[in-house]
Amino acid sequence: MAESGGAGADPGRVETTGGAVAMRASGGATVLTVSGALDLALAPKLRQLVDRAARTDVPVVVIDLTAVDFLASAGMAVLVWAHRQPEPSDVRVVASGRLTMRPLELTRLTDELAVFPSLPAALEGV
Fold this sequence. Notes:
There is one protein chain. This protein is α/β, with parallel strands linked by helices. It contains 4 helices and 6 strands; from the N terminus they run βββαβαβαβα. The protein has helices at 43-54, 73-84, 98-106, 119-123, and strands at 13-15, 19-26, 29-38, 60-71, 90-94, 114-116. A 6-stranded mixed sheet has the order 1-2-3-4-5-6. A hairpin with a 3-residue loop joins strand 1 and strand 2 (19-26). The radius of gyration is 14 Å and the shape is globular.
């Protein structure tokens, strides 16, 4: 039986028609880079990769929203879910553009989440 995605499919990358999430290690952190629309279609896939990252020995997970062009409530719910899980113990969100910061500010999630303006800032001290 063939794997979903075919031979050569990257197990650290998931896609929908509107977006994608890629997982990679970076020093002492796991970085999840989200692109496109973080909506009802992509949010469960991000949750799966956060769960996979939590099963590693790396305590820091950075969710990079720099390339996100639409942040829906389903995506924000996954960010809150990830932040409230006991593992990984340190979840950091990278968001700086209006398309991601505005929804986070309006919902006051910037008060709860550790939000950084850039990936290097989020990785600092790791």
